[in-house]
Every structure is written in C-alpha cells, then in structure tokens.
Amino acid sequence: MAESYSRLKFIVVDDFPQFRHAVKNMLESFGATDIDLAARGEDALRMMRNHQYDVILCDYNLGTGKNGQQVLEEASYYRLLSQSTSFMMLTAETSSEMVLGALEYQPDDYLTKPFNKEMLKARLDKVLRRSQEFMPVTLAWDRGHHDDALAQCEGLLERKTKYKLHCFKLKAELLMEMKAYPRAEKIYEQVLKARKQSWALMGIGKACFYQENYPRAREAFDALLSMNRSFVAAYDWLARVDEAEGNIESAFDHVKSATRLSPRVIDRQAWLGRLSTESGDVQTAVNAFRTAVRLSKNSSLKRPENYVELASALLQAGNSDADSSNKTSMVKEALQTMVDTRRLFNERPEIKVKTFLVDGDAYLSIGNKDDAKRALERAVELYETVEEEILDKDDGSKLISGLEQTGQLHLVSRVNNVLDGKRPEDEPVDEGADSEANEAGVSLYQQGKLEEALEAFDKAMELSPNSLAVHLNAAQANLKFIEVNGATKERMDKVRRLLAYIKRTLLKDTSNQRFDKLLRIFESLYNKG
User: Fold this and answer.
1) What is the b/e burial string over 148-185, where b = at least 16 CB atoms within 10 angstroms of the residue's CB?
2) CA 141 to CA 191: how far, in whole Å?
3) DSSP per residue over 208-245, as a string?
4) Cβ distance 66 to 30 under 8 Å?
C-alpha cells in the first residue's frame, strides 16, 4: 500500500500542532508525501476550495471557530468533496450527542483518540482499498455521467467484487439521485431479502416517500426504529411523512425525539422551532431557534429566517408572560437579534424588511408607537427595493396592517404600488412631508407634466428645506426631465447639487436604495453627455 499512499493528497485538521505533526509523521511512514496541515476549520475549508484531497483526517473539537462536524457539513453542502474523497473524523470525545451529530453527515470512518500508527494504518487501508475498487464509479459520478457510473457498478457485480453490498448501495444511491425511485426501491428490496440492512430500509423509506407511498414509507422507518431506537434519521423521515399527511403534532413529536438524541444540527433545531410554533409550544420554539442561531455562529450556513423566527417567537412568549420584566427582557433580545440579522445580511433588503417588521411589532408590544412608526417607515423604503422575483407579498400585507395600526395611512399606497408592480424609480413618493407643494409635484409627475412638477418640487424645497423626501423627489423629477428632453449643463448641475445634499443627509444611513438608483441614473446620463 506504500505506493498507493504516495499517489494521494492528504490534509490533517487539528488545533493542536503536536498532534497534527504526529499524524503527519505516521502518514509519511505509510508512504504519503503530499500532506497539508490546518489548525482551524475555516482554514481547512479554504484549502478544500483550492485543492482536491483524497483523504481528510479531521478532529471533531477544533477549539474556537468551526468544529469537525461543521467542516464536514459545509464541505458537503458546497460540494468540496468528490465521491472518491475519504473523510475520517478523529476525536477524543465520546458523548452520544457528539458521536451521533458527527455521524449524521456520514464520514467514511470514525477513529477515537488516542490511537497509534498501527490503528490508523488499519483503518486507512480498509477505507482506501474500497475507495480504489470503486474509483471508476466515483469518477463517472463526479463528472455527472450517471449511466456510465451505473454501468461500472454492473461490471463490478459481474466480476464478483468482495464489496457487493456497498456496490448495491452505491447503485441505489445513484438511481435515487437520478430520481429513478422505483428502480432504486427494487435494489433495496433485493438487498433486504438477503440480509436486513439499515441503509436498505432507509432507502426503501425514502424511495416510497418520493413516490408518495406514505404508508409504506412509514412502515420502513418504523422498522428502523424497532431495530435501533437511536436511529436519528428515521425520526426525521417519519416527521416528513407526518407533514405530508398533515399530522403536525406527530411531526413535532418525531422531530423532538430526533433533537433529543442529536441536538447539534442547525436545520433540525430550526425545524423543531417551526413545528413548535405551529403546535402552540412557544417556549420550545424560543429554545429551538436560540439553539439554531447559536450553532450557526461559526457556520457559513447561517439562515436569516432562523433569526427572524427567533425574534418572533420571543415576542409571542413575551406577550403571553404575565411578568412584565420577562416581557421587557424578551423584547430587548428580539430587537438585538434583528440588529444582528441586519449586520449579518446587510445586502439582503428582503430580509431587512422582515427585521423592521419585527421591530415594529416589538415596539408596539411595549407601547412605543414612535419607534414602531420609524421601523415601519424603514420597512416600506426597503420593500420598494426588493426584486419582484423574491418579493414576499405576505410582508406587504403585514406592512399594511402595521401602518394602519400606527396611523401611517399615507404610506399604505406605496406598499400597494409595490404589490401592483410599480416601483419608486418610476414615480416619486409622498413621504409625509409637510408640504402641499410636494403632494402637487407627485401628482403632476404621475400625469407626465414634468415642467409643472419641477416647479412644485422647487416650491416644496423652499417650504421644507430639510426634507429628504422632497429632495429625492426633486432629483428624480429632474432626471426624468433630462431623459425626456435632453441634458443641459444647468440642469445637470442642479441634479448634482441635489444628490450632494441627499448624500450628506444620508451619512448615517448610506444604504438608501432609492438614492443609489438615482445616482446610477445620473452617472449614466453624465457619461452619455
């Protein structure tokens, strides 16, 4: 095997330098020559993006930052691992919670510290012999040549490979990926007739689920649990069957069982949070979303909806708590969670809309109507910038409800315009400025009477010299006039002055999407001139 080790590329991931170098020395004694070392999960993932490794030896506990489970999860999610890559988890931890969490992402092997050179060699030889046997299959699979990969499996079976069961497993997984569920089901059934294999039962359950044969799928997953009550994935899939059949309470119970066994999976905690909310168990929802957010702290797989749903659950819990101090604490946590969300997802206006909606609810829940108004105004402004393809119309309905509740009826038409497909770059808006001239300018602009609109906005700026809304409207109307009638130096200079004023006003809020669009239009017209 020394010759085969010399052809492979290895990476050892461990936060202790002595251990990294000890493993490197062991690998070199086996004949390995191409070995990279990483101390942190983040470093390992960066290196995986730049290199294709044959073998990854990764410790579970990597100190601060990502742990080994997150490294495997993210490497799988971002497709940094080929089908032929062997991932071995190394750890000194033995708690069932950790072991189940790590094994859920199916590393090729698992080795408990401490271990010696002989133990590592035995495990690696076993993994590598099988990997080498199936190299033609995995290479074809990685290239997306599924039919060729299936043919390679058939060839191995004809040659009486000693890895017959694994060959059937790979063949069925290929068919599942191809959505050839009936063919995959037949293979799983064939395996079970010869020997009871948990992976074959799981495969039958999944194949039947995707064919909407929910009773047969449930039967398979129940059979798995009768073999092993700690089979976490069986609980997950039973919950999926429950949801498909509309049984939310049973789904909640199954996900709760899976979470008790293996609580370190972000998506499962978030799933538990959503089911808890639907079932009316608000405190469990709060705890689950808190855990999902905490687990994603060092992960690039952060999901903004988990933060938003945590804040919403906190507000629900606070509203149902008779203790006012508890309510205040939960509102404060919800608001801080939304601040964190805006920081983490600053380039996502559709997410920021949701955060300001939550802010509005939070402030209203403690009687702070002024801050609620400001939050909803910001939500409206952002809502107008969300691309139509990702626009959440439910957010529009929530916005209208909140605006009506806070008496901001002048903003409702802006939300309705977005819902009707109209955008602020198409027409100016009345932001509630205390100027009849501004309203007149908006009306004239909408009628296409640009010269009269410009006169009205000039008058509005005299009456409301500090109004951001009026200056934005004036800039927009002037740009439209230039597009229709052509540019003059005087008109371009006027727009430049308007935009300069707006930019100074926005120093504390440089993310104003409407200003950014107006600036782009101005630059385009300037370049044409």
Assistant:
1) ebbebbeebeeeebeeeebbbbbbbbbbbeeebbebbb
2) 22
3) HHHTT-HHHHHHHHHHHHHH-TT-HHHHHHHHHHHHHT
4) no
CB of 41 within 8 A of CB of 19? Answer: no
Indicate if the alpha-carbon torsion angle 71, 72, 75, 78 is positive or negative: negative
Structure tokens at 466: 């500090």
Token pair listed for 166: 């694994």
The amino acid at residue 299 is S
Domains and CATH numbers, the chain: 2-132 (3.40.50.2300), 348-424 (no CATH), 436-528 (1.25.40.10)
- Taking only the tens place, the pLDDT of each residue in 230-277 is 888 899 999 999 999 999 999 999 999 999 988 888 999 999 999 999
Structure tokens at 131: 């990997």
| Whole-Å CA distances, 136 to 108, 152, 226, 275 | 18, 7, 37, 43
Q: What angle do CA 42, 48, 49 make, to 5 degrees?
A: 95
Question: Side-chain half-sphere of 229: how many Cα atoms within 13 Å?
Answer: 2
What is each CA distance from 357 to 374, 380, 410, 486, in whole angstroms?
11, 9, 17, 41
To which residue do tokens 């359950």 refer? 205
Residue 55: strand pairing partners: 10, 86
Tens of pLDDT, residues 343-360: 999 889 999 999 999 999
pTM: 0.71
On the question of a cis peptide bond just before residue 465, with omega within 30 degrees of 0, the verdict is no
Q: Is the pLDDT of residue 472 over 60?
A: yes
